[in-house]
Amino acid sequence: MSLRSRINTPEENGSRGEDGHLVSSYRAKLLEEIDLAEMSSLAAAERRARLERVLGHIISREGPVLSTVERSQLIRRVVDEALGLGILEPLLEDASITEIMVNGPDSIFVERGGRVEQLPLRFPSHDQLMQTIERIVSTVNRRVDETNPMVDARLPSGERVNVIIPPLSLTGAILTIRRFPRSYTLQELVGFDSLDENMLYLLAGLVQARFNIIVSGATGTGKTTLLNALSGLIPEGDRIITIEDSAELQLQQRHVVRLEARPPNVEGQGRVTIRDLVRNSLRMRPDRIVVGEVRGGESLDMLQAMSTGHDGSLATVHANSAEDALMRLKTLASMSEVEIPFEALHDQINSAVDVIIQLTRFADGARRITEIALLDSNGSEPYRLATVARFDAQPMAADGRIYGRFAYFPLPRRAVDRLYMASQPTPQAFGVAQSAAQLALREAR
Ligand SMILES: Nc1ncnc2c1ncn2[C@@H]1O[C@H](COP(=O)(O)OP(=O)(O)OP(=O)(O)O)[C@@H](O)[C@H]1O
Ligand SMILES: [Mg+2]
Can you give the CATH number for the domain in which 216 is found? Predict the structure, then answer.
Protein backbone atom coordinates (compact mmCIF):
# COMPACT_ATOMS: atom_id res chain seq x y z
CA MET A 1 0.00 0.00 0.00
CA SER A 2 1.38 3.39 -0.88
CA LEU A 3 2.05 5.87 1.87
CA ARG A 4 -0.58 8.22 0.55
CA SER A 5 -3.31 5.63 0.68
CA ARG A 6 -2.16 4.56 4.11
CA ILE A 7 -2.48 8.07 5.33
CA ASN A 8 -5.73 8.80 3.60
CA THR A 9 -7.62 5.77 4.82
CA PRO A 10 -7.80 6.12 8.55
CA GLU A 11 -9.43 2.76 9.17
CA GLU A 12 -6.55 1.06 7.42
CA ASN A 13 -3.72 2.61 9.29
CA GLY A 14 -2.47 2.77 12.80
CA SER A 15 -3.94 0.10 14.97
CA ARG A 16 -7.49 0.97 15.64
CA GLY A 17 -10.55 -0.95 16.63
CA GLU A 18 -10.89 -4.59 15.60
CA ASP A 19 -7.87 -4.40 13.35
CA GLY A 20 -5.71 -2.76 15.95
CA HIS A 21 -6.61 -5.44 18.42
CA LEU A 22 -5.46 -8.09 15.94
CA VAL A 23 -2.17 -6.31 15.40
CA SER A 24 -1.38 -5.92 19.08
CA SER A 25 -2.39 -9.47 19.98
CA TYR A 26 -0.13 -10.87 17.26
CA ARG A 27 2.64 -8.58 18.31
CA ALA A 28 2.38 -10.01 21.84
CA LYS A 29 2.39 -13.59 20.51
CA LEU A 30 5.33 -12.86 18.30
CA LEU A 31 7.34 -11.43 21.16
CA GLU A 32 6.59 -14.57 23.21
CA GLU A 33 7.96 -16.89 20.57
CA ILE A 34 11.15 -15.20 19.51
CA ASP A 35 14.48 -15.30 21.21
CA LEU A 36 15.37 -11.70 21.90
CA ALA A 37 19.03 -12.40 22.51
CA GLU A 38 19.33 -14.11 19.16
CA MET A 39 17.41 -11.27 17.51
CA SER A 40 19.81 -8.63 18.72
CA SER A 41 22.73 -10.40 17.06
CA LEU A 42 21.08 -10.15 13.62
CA ALA A 43 21.38 -7.34 11.11
CA ALA A 44 18.25 -5.22 10.59
CA ALA A 45 17.19 -6.91 7.34
CA GLU A 46 17.69 -10.41 8.74
CA ARG A 47 15.80 -9.47 11.88
CA ARG A 48 12.82 -8.35 9.84
CA ALA A 49 12.93 -11.51 7.68
CA ARG A 50 13.12 -13.71 10.75
CA LEU A 51 10.18 -11.98 12.46
CA GLU A 52 8.12 -12.25 9.30
CA ARG A 53 8.82 -15.98 9.07
CA VAL A 54 7.94 -16.67 12.71
CA LEU A 55 4.79 -14.59 12.46
CA GLY A 56 3.82 -16.39 9.26
CA HIS A 57 3.95 -19.68 11.17
CA ILE A 58 1.86 -18.28 14.03
CA ILE A 59 -0.80 -16.99 11.68
CA SER A 60 -1.00 -20.25 9.71
CA ARG A 61 -1.19 -22.20 12.94
CA GLU A 62 -4.01 -20.36 14.64
CA GLY A 63 -4.95 -17.44 12.53
CA PRO A 64 -8.18 -16.45 10.87
CA VAL A 65 -8.60 -17.23 7.21
CA LEU A 66 -7.04 -14.34 5.36
CA SER A 67 -6.48 -13.55 1.73
CA THR A 68 -2.85 -13.41 0.65
CA VAL A 69 -2.98 -9.62 0.54
CA GLU A 70 -4.58 -9.32 3.98
CA ARG A 71 -2.13 -11.77 5.37
CA SER A 72 0.91 -9.91 4.11
CA GLN A 73 -0.52 -6.60 5.27
CA LEU A 74 -1.06 -7.99 8.73
CA ILE A 75 2.46 -9.37 8.82
CA ARG A 76 3.92 -6.10 7.70
CA ARG A 77 2.02 -4.10 10.31
CA VAL A 78 2.80 -6.41 13.18
CA VAL A 79 6.48 -6.51 12.29
CA ASP A 80 6.58 -2.73 11.79
CA GLU A 81 5.21 -2.29 15.26
CA ALA A 82 7.39 -4.91 16.85
CA LEU A 83 10.54 -3.75 15.20
CA GLY A 84 10.27 -0.23 14.17
CA LEU A 85 8.38 2.88 14.84
CA GLY A 86 4.88 1.66 14.08
CA ILE A 87 2.74 4.24 12.40
CA LEU A 88 5.69 6.62 12.16
CA GLU A 89 7.55 4.24 9.87
CA PRO A 90 5.74 5.16 6.62
CA LEU A 91 5.99 8.85 7.53
CA LEU A 92 9.73 8.53 7.91
CA GLU A 93 9.92 6.84 4.52
CA ASP A 94 8.08 9.68 2.82
CA ALA A 95 10.68 12.06 1.44
CA SER A 96 8.15 14.86 0.99
CA ILE A 97 7.64 15.13 4.76
CA THR A 98 10.14 17.44 6.41
CA GLU A 99 8.86 17.41 9.97
CA ILE A 100 6.76 15.03 12.07
CA MET A 101 5.04 16.38 15.15
CA VAL A 102 3.31 14.02 17.57
CA ASN A 103 1.30 15.83 20.23
CA GLY A 104 0.21 13.00 22.45
CA PRO A 105 -1.18 9.72 21.06
CA ASP A 106 -4.18 11.24 19.29
CA SER A 107 -2.70 14.06 17.33
CA ILE A 108 -0.09 13.81 14.59
CA PHE A 109 0.91 16.67 12.34
CA VAL A 110 3.45 16.76 9.53
CA GLU A 111 5.05 19.51 7.52
CA ARG A 112 5.06 18.99 3.78
CA GLY A 113 6.18 21.58 1.24
CA GLY A 114 6.34 24.18 3.98
CA ARG A 115 2.75 23.61 5.10
CA VAL A 116 1.62 21.96 8.28
CA GLU A 117 -1.24 19.46 8.12
CA GLN A 118 -2.87 17.07 10.57
CA LEU A 119 -3.00 13.40 9.59
CA PRO A 120 -5.89 11.06 10.39
CA LEU A 121 -3.53 8.85 12.37
CA ARG A 122 -3.10 8.04 16.02
CA PHE A 123 -1.20 5.78 18.35
CA PRO A 124 -3.37 3.05 19.89
CA SER A 125 -2.50 4.25 23.38
CA HIS A 126 -0.25 6.48 25.42
CA ASP A 127 1.85 3.43 26.30
CA GLN A 128 2.42 2.63 22.65
CA LEU A 129 3.58 6.14 22.01
CA MET A 130 5.94 5.95 24.97
CA GLN A 131 7.31 2.63 23.70
CA THR A 132 7.98 4.16 20.31
CA ILE A 133 9.69 7.13 21.93
CA GLU A 134 11.80 4.85 24.09
CA ARG A 135 12.79 2.83 21.05
CA ILE A 136 13.87 5.99 19.26
CA VAL A 137 15.92 7.52 22.05
CA SER A 138 17.51 4.23 23.03
CA THR A 139 19.18 4.05 19.61
CA VAL A 140 21.32 6.97 20.74
CA ASN A 141 21.82 5.65 24.26
CA ARG A 142 19.53 8.16 25.86
CA ARG A 143 16.73 7.62 28.26
CA VAL A 144 13.47 9.39 28.77
CA ASP A 145 11.67 9.10 32.08
CA GLU A 146 10.58 11.17 35.06
CA THR A 147 14.12 12.26 35.85
CA ASN A 148 14.95 12.96 32.17
CA PRO A 149 11.69 14.32 30.84
CA MET A 150 13.34 16.17 27.94
CA VAL A 151 15.62 14.67 25.32
CA ASP A 152 17.11 16.25 22.24
CA ALA A 153 19.13 13.94 20.04
CA ARG A 154 20.19 13.16 16.55
CA LEU A 155 19.58 9.70 15.17
CA PRO A 156 22.28 7.81 13.28
CA SER A 157 20.14 8.31 10.18
CA GLY A 158 20.43 12.06 10.62
CA GLU A 159 16.97 12.95 11.93
CA ARG A 160 16.82 15.35 14.82
CA VAL A 161 14.52 14.19 17.58
CA ASN A 162 13.08 16.09 20.50
CA VAL A 163 10.98 14.52 23.23
CA ILE A 164 9.21 16.11 26.15
CA ILE A 165 6.86 14.14 28.37
CA PRO A 166 4.40 14.83 31.20
CA PRO A 167 4.39 16.44 33.71
CA LEU A 168 6.35 19.05 31.72
CA SER A 169 4.04 18.59 28.78
CA LEU A 170 0.41 19.06 29.67
CA THR A 171 -0.86 17.34 26.53
CA GLY A 172 0.78 13.93 26.69
CA ALA A 173 4.17 12.88 25.37
CA ILE A 174 5.39 15.15 22.59
CA LEU A 175 7.72 13.93 19.89
CA THR A 176 9.14 16.19 17.20
CA ILE A 177 11.19 14.70 14.39
CA ARG A 178 12.98 16.97 11.95
CA ARG A 179 14.03 15.13 8.83
CA PHE A 180 17.66 15.45 7.95
CA PRO A 181 17.54 18.54 5.77
CA ARG A 182 18.49 17.91 2.18
CA SER A 183 21.33 20.10 1.13
CA TYR A 184 20.67 22.53 -1.68
CA THR A 185 23.07 24.60 -3.73
CA LEU A 186 22.44 28.33 -4.02
CA GLN A 187 21.50 27.67 -7.62
CA GLU A 188 18.77 25.27 -6.49
CA LEU A 189 17.52 27.86 -4.00
CA VAL A 190 17.28 30.30 -6.90
CA GLY A 191 15.04 27.68 -8.53
CA PHE A 192 12.72 27.94 -5.49
CA ASP A 193 12.65 31.74 -5.81
CA SER A 194 14.34 32.06 -2.43
CA LEU A 195 16.76 34.50 -4.03
CA ASP A 196 17.58 35.48 -7.60
CA GLU A 197 20.63 35.27 -9.88
CA ASN A 198 21.82 38.78 -9.07
CA MET A 199 21.78 38.07 -5.36
CA LEU A 200 23.54 34.76 -5.91
CA TYR A 201 26.24 36.56 -7.83
CA LEU A 202 26.63 39.12 -5.05
CA LEU A 203 26.71 36.50 -2.27
CA ALA A 204 29.30 34.46 -4.17
CA GLY A 205 31.53 37.57 -4.31
CA LEU A 206 31.04 38.32 -0.62
CA VAL A 207 31.96 34.79 0.43
CA GLN A 208 35.02 34.70 -1.85
CA ALA A 209 36.14 38.12 -0.61
CA ARG A 210 35.95 36.82 2.97
CA PHE A 211 33.18 39.01 4.32
CA ASN A 212 31.91 37.77 7.69
CA ILE A 213 28.32 36.74 7.17
CA ILE A 214 25.50 36.23 9.65
CA VAL A 215 22.39 34.38 8.47
CA SER A 216 19.42 35.50 10.53
CA GLY A 217 15.90 34.09 10.73
CA ALA A 218 13.26 32.59 12.97
CA THR A 219 12.89 28.86 13.57
CA GLY A 220 12.65 26.78 10.43
CA THR A 221 13.17 29.66 8.01
CA GLY A 222 16.01 27.84 6.28
CA LYS A 223 19.07 29.22 8.09
CA THR A 224 20.98 25.96 8.13
CA THR A 225 20.06 25.28 4.51
CA LEU A 226 21.36 28.67 3.41
CA LEU A 227 24.47 28.39 5.57
CA ASN A 228 25.23 25.10 3.89
CA ALA A 229 24.71 26.57 0.43
CA LEU A 230 26.90 29.59 1.21
CA SER A 231 29.63 27.37 2.64
CA GLY A 232 29.63 25.60 -0.68
CA LEU A 233 31.09 28.78 -2.18
CA ILE A 234 34.19 28.74 0.02
CA PRO A 235 37.22 28.08 -2.18
CA GLU A 236 38.67 24.59 -2.16
CA GLY A 237 42.03 25.63 -0.65
CA ASP A 238 40.64 26.93 2.66
CA ARG A 239 40.69 24.92 5.85
CA ILE A 240 37.11 25.03 7.11
CA ILE A 241 36.03 24.16 10.64
CA THR A 242 32.31 23.63 11.17
CA ILE A 243 30.85 23.78 14.68
CA GLU A 244 27.31 22.65 15.37
CA ASP A 245 24.96 21.47 18.04
CA SER A 246 23.84 18.63 15.88
CA ALA A 247 25.85 18.19 12.73
CA GLU A 248 23.64 19.07 9.75
CA LEU A 249 26.03 20.83 7.40
CA GLN A 250 27.24 18.82 4.43
CA LEU A 251 30.21 20.58 2.93
CA GLN A 252 31.73 19.12 -0.18
CA GLN A 253 35.22 20.62 0.06
CA ARG A 254 38.15 18.35 0.79
CA HIS A 255 39.60 20.22 3.75
CA VAL A 256 36.73 20.30 6.24
CA VAL A 257 36.91 19.55 9.95
CA ARG A 258 33.52 18.88 11.56
CA LEU A 259 32.94 19.41 15.26
CA GLU A 260 29.76 18.62 17.14
CA ALA A 261 28.81 19.69 20.66
CA ARG A 262 27.83 17.06 23.18
CA PRO A 263 25.03 17.15 25.75
CA PRO A 264 25.73 15.85 29.24
CA ASN A 265 25.35 12.09 29.70
CA VAL A 266 22.75 10.45 31.93
CA GLU A 267 24.83 11.29 35.02
CA GLY A 268 24.95 14.93 33.93
CA GLN A 269 28.62 14.83 32.95
CA GLY A 270 30.83 15.24 29.91
CA ARG A 271 29.08 18.23 28.39
CA VAL A 272 30.95 20.06 25.61
CA THR A 273 29.39 23.31 24.45
CA ILE A 274 29.52 25.19 21.17
CA ARG A 275 31.53 27.75 23.06
CA ASP A 276 34.19 25.19 24.06
CA LEU A 277 34.41 24.11 20.43
CA VAL A 278 34.69 27.66 19.07
CA ARG A 279 37.55 28.35 21.48
CA ASN A 280 39.25 25.12 20.62
CA SER A 281 38.84 25.68 16.90
CA LEU A 282 40.95 28.84 17.13
CA ARG A 283 43.93 26.65 17.97
CA MET A 284 43.34 24.48 14.94
CA ARG A 285 44.54 26.96 12.33
CA PRO A 286 41.19 27.56 10.67
CA ASP A 287 40.86 29.67 7.54
CA ARG A 288 37.12 29.83 8.02
CA ILE A 289 34.91 29.04 10.95
CA VAL A 290 31.32 28.08 10.28
CA VAL A 291 29.07 28.08 13.35
CA GLY A 292 25.73 26.32 12.88
CA GLU A 293 23.84 28.48 15.31
CA VAL A 294 25.04 31.04 17.82
CA ARG A 295 22.83 30.83 20.86
CA GLY A 296 24.98 31.52 23.88
CA GLY A 297 28.25 32.90 25.18
CA GLU A 298 30.09 31.61 22.09
CA SER A 299 28.85 34.77 20.42
CA LEU A 300 31.70 36.63 22.11
CA ASP A 301 34.39 34.18 21.01
CA MET A 302 33.03 34.12 17.52
CA LEU A 303 32.95 37.91 17.24
CA GLN A 304 36.51 38.08 18.53
CA ALA A 305 37.60 35.46 16.02
CA MET A 306 35.86 37.28 13.18
CA SER A 307 37.49 40.59 14.01
CA THR A 308 40.96 39.17 14.55
CA GLY A 309 41.93 37.54 11.35
CA HIS A 310 39.43 34.75 10.79
CA ASP A 311 37.47 36.71 8.26
CA GLY A 312 35.21 34.91 5.94
CA SER A 313 33.48 33.17 8.78
CA LEU A 314 29.80 32.29 8.69
CA ALA A 315 27.18 31.76 11.36
CA THR A 316 23.45 31.80 11.92
CA VAL A 317 21.48 33.49 14.65
CA HIS A 318 17.83 33.35 15.61
CA ALA A 319 16.44 36.84 14.95
CA ASN A 320 13.60 38.55 13.12
CA SER A 321 15.45 41.37 11.36
CA ALA A 322 18.97 42.54 10.63
CA GLU A 323 18.92 44.98 13.60
CA ASP A 324 17.50 42.29 15.80
CA ALA A 325 20.38 39.99 14.77
CA LEU A 326 22.95 42.57 15.90
CA MET A 327 21.16 43.06 19.22
CA ARG A 328 20.92 39.35 19.71
CA LEU A 329 24.64 38.80 19.08
CA LYS A 330 25.36 41.54 21.59
CA THR A 331 23.03 40.12 24.24
CA LEU A 332 24.39 36.61 23.76
CA ALA A 333 27.99 37.86 23.95
CA SER A 334 27.17 39.60 27.22
CA MET A 335 26.01 36.25 28.60
CA SER A 336 29.55 34.88 28.61
CA GLU A 337 31.25 34.98 31.99
CA VAL A 338 33.89 37.41 30.68
CA GLU A 339 32.83 40.83 31.90
CA ILE A 340 32.87 43.10 28.89
CA PRO A 341 31.08 46.44 28.91
CA PHE A 342 28.15 46.69 26.55
CA GLU A 343 29.87 49.53 24.63
CA ALA A 344 32.89 47.35 23.96
CA LEU A 345 30.60 44.65 22.60
CA HIS A 346 29.04 47.24 20.33
CA ASP A 347 32.46 48.09 18.87
CA GLN A 348 33.28 44.43 18.55
CA ILE A 349 30.18 43.80 16.47
CA ASN A 350 30.93 46.79 14.27
CA SER A 351 34.34 45.41 13.46
CA ALA A 352 33.32 41.74 13.21
CA VAL A 353 30.07 41.60 11.24
CA ASP A 354 30.03 42.57 7.56
CA VAL A 355 26.83 41.13 6.15
CA ILE A 356 23.46 40.06 7.51
CA ILE A 357 21.15 37.91 5.43
CA GLN A 358 17.60 37.87 6.73
CA LEU A 359 15.36 34.89 5.99
CA THR A 360 11.60 34.72 6.28
CA ARG A 361 9.13 31.90 5.99
CA PHE A 362 5.96 33.14 4.32
CA ALA A 363 2.40 32.10 5.02
CA ASP A 364 2.35 30.04 1.79
CA GLY A 365 5.29 27.96 3.05
CA ALA A 366 7.92 29.63 0.84
CA ARG A 367 11.27 30.49 2.42
CA ARG A 368 13.08 33.49 1.08
CA ILE A 369 15.90 35.90 1.61
CA THR A 370 13.99 39.05 2.54
CA GLU A 371 17.04 41.27 3.02
CA ILE A 372 20.77 41.40 2.44
CA ALA A 373 22.24 44.23 4.53
CA LEU A 374 25.85 45.34 4.74
CA LEU A 375 27.08 46.75 8.04
CA ASP A 376 28.86 49.97 7.10
CA SER A 377 29.84 51.44 10.46
CA ASN A 378 32.97 51.45 12.61
CA GLY A 379 33.93 51.44 16.27
CA SER A 380 31.47 53.17 18.55
CA GLU A 381 29.32 54.62 15.76
CA PRO A 382 25.68 53.55 15.77
CA TYR A 383 25.16 50.55 13.50
CA ARG A 384 24.63 51.67 9.91
CA LEU A 385 22.85 49.03 7.91
CA ALA A 386 22.82 49.45 4.15
CA THR A 387 20.15 47.35 2.49
CA VAL A 388 21.45 46.07 -0.82
CA ALA A 389 18.67 43.63 -1.64
CA ARG A 390 15.14 43.29 -0.36
CA PHE A 391 12.10 41.20 -1.17
CA ASP A 392 8.96 43.29 -1.57
CA ALA A 393 6.01 40.98 -1.04
CA GLN A 394 2.51 41.43 -2.41
CA PRO A 395 -0.62 40.38 -0.55
CA MET A 396 -1.48 36.69 -0.91
CA ALA A 397 -2.80 35.91 -4.40
CA ALA A 398 -5.97 33.98 -5.23
CA ASP A 399 -3.95 30.77 -5.66
CA GLY A 400 -2.79 31.03 -2.05
CA ARG A 401 0.78 31.97 -2.97
CA ILE A 402 2.69 35.08 -2.15
CA TYR A 403 4.38 36.81 -5.06
CA GLY A 404 6.67 39.78 -5.05
CA ARG A 405 9.94 41.04 -6.43
CA PHE A 406 13.51 41.52 -5.33
CA ALA A 407 14.66 45.13 -5.25
CA TYR A 408 18.34 46.14 -5.36
CA PHE A 409 20.16 49.12 -3.89
CA PRO A 410 23.69 50.45 -4.38
CA LEU A 411 26.60 49.00 -2.41
CA PRO A 412 28.62 51.13 0.04
CA ARG A 413 31.96 52.26 -1.40
CA ARG A 414 33.87 50.35 1.25
CA ALA A 415 32.32 47.02 0.31
CA VAL A 416 32.95 47.63 -3.37
CA ASP A 417 36.62 48.35 -2.68
CA ARG A 418 36.90 45.20 -0.68
CA LEU A 419 35.31 43.13 -3.43
CA TYR A 420 37.64 44.76 -5.94
CA MET A 421 40.73 43.97 -3.88
CA ALA A 422 39.64 40.33 -3.84
CA SER A 423 39.19 40.39 -7.65
CA GLN A 424 35.42 40.07 -7.28
CA PRO A 425 33.34 42.23 -9.56
CA THR A 426 30.42 44.21 -8.18
CA PRO A 427 27.28 42.86 -9.85
CA GLN A 428 25.85 45.49 -12.16
CA ALA A 429 22.31 45.19 -10.86
CA PHE A 430 23.36 46.81 -7.59
CA GLY A 431 25.82 49.53 -8.56
CA VAL A 432 28.00 51.65 -6.31
CA ALA A 433 26.79 54.44 -4.04
CA GLN A 434 28.66 57.66 -4.77
CA SER A 435 27.51 59.22 -1.52
CA ALA A 436 25.77 58.18 1.66
CA ALA A 437 22.59 59.76 0.30
CA GLN A 438 22.35 57.04 -2.35
CA LEU A 439 22.43 54.20 0.16
CA ALA A 440 19.30 52.53 1.50
CA LEU A 441 20.55 53.22 4.98
CA ARG A 442 19.21 52.94 8.48
CA GLU A 443 20.82 53.35 11.85
CA ALA A 444 20.45 51.25 14.96
CA ARG A 445 22.02 51.34 18.37
N1 LIG B 1 14.80 28.09 0.46
C2 LIG B 1 14.10 27.02 0.78
N3 LIG B 1 13.10 26.60 0.01
C4 LIG B 1 12.37 25.51 0.36
N5 LIG B 1 12.58 24.77 1.47
C6 LIG B 1 13.57 25.14 2.27
C7 LIG B 1 14.38 26.28 1.99
N8 LIG B 1 15.28 26.43 2.98
C9 LIG B 1 15.02 25.43 3.83
N10 LIG B 1 14.03 24.65 3.43
C11 LIG B 1 13.46 23.49 4.15
O12 LIG B 1 12.91 23.98 5.36
C13 LIG B 1 13.19 23.13 6.46
C14 LIG B 1 13.91 23.89 7.56
O15 LIG B 1 15.16 24.32 7.06
P16 LIG B 1 16.42 24.57 8.00
O17 LIG B 1 16.70 23.39 8.86
O18 LIG B 1 17.50 25.05 7.12
O19 LIG B 1 15.85 25.77 8.90
P20 LIG B 1 16.51 26.47 10.17
O21 LIG B 1 16.15 27.91 10.10
O22 LIG B 1 17.96 26.14 10.25
O23 LIG B 1 15.71 25.77 11.34
P24 LIG B 1 16.08 25.77 12.92
O25 LIG B 1 15.68 27.12 13.44
O26 LIG B 1 15.20 24.70 13.47
O27 LIG B 1 17.54 25.49 13.03
C28 LIG B 1 14.00 21.99 5.89
O29 LIG B 1 13.14 20.92 5.64
C30 LIG B 1 14.55 22.54 4.59
O31 LIG B 1 14.78 21.53 3.62
MG1 LIG C 1 19.08 25.27 11.78
Answer: 3.40.50.300
Candidate from 367, 369, 370 with most ligand 1 atoms within 8 A of CB, to mutate: 367
Atom of ligand 1 nearest to the CA of 181: 31
Same domain, 151 and 290: no
With a 6 A CB cut-off, is 194 part of the ligand 1 pocket? yes
Residue in 108, 104, 48 with CA at minimum distance from that of residue 78: 48
pTM listed for this prediction: 0.78
Whether 225 lines ligand 1, by a CB cut-off of 6 Å, is yes
The pLDDT tens digits along the chain (445 residues) read: 333 333 333 333 333 456 667 877 887 788 778 776 666 567 767 878 888 888 888 888 877 778 888 888 888 888 877 766 778 877 887 888 999 999 999 999 999 887 899 999 888 889 889 988 988 887 777 788 888 899 988 777 778 899 999 999 999 999 999 887 788 999 999 999 999 999 999 999 999 999 999 999 999 899 999 999 999 999 999 999 999 988 889 888 999 999 999 887 767 788 999 999 999 999 999 999 999 999 999 999 999 989 887 889 999 999 999 999 999 999 999 987 778 888 999 999 999 999 999 999 999 989 999 999 999 999 999 999 999 999 999 999 999 999 999 999 999 999 999 999 999 998 899 999 998 899 999 998 8
Residues 201, 277, single domain; the answer is yes
Q: What is the tally of structural domains in the chain?
A: 3
Q: How far is the CA of 224 from the centre of ligand 1 (A)?
A: 6
Quick check: 179 and 99 in contact, CB under 8 A?
yes
Q: What are phi and psi of 85, to 5 degrees?
A: -110, 25
Structural domain that includes position 176? 87-180
Do 271 and 355 sit in the same domain of this protein? yes
Tell me the residue length of the chain. Answer: 445
The reply to whether 55 and 102 lie within a common domain is: no
Letter for the amino acid at 387? T
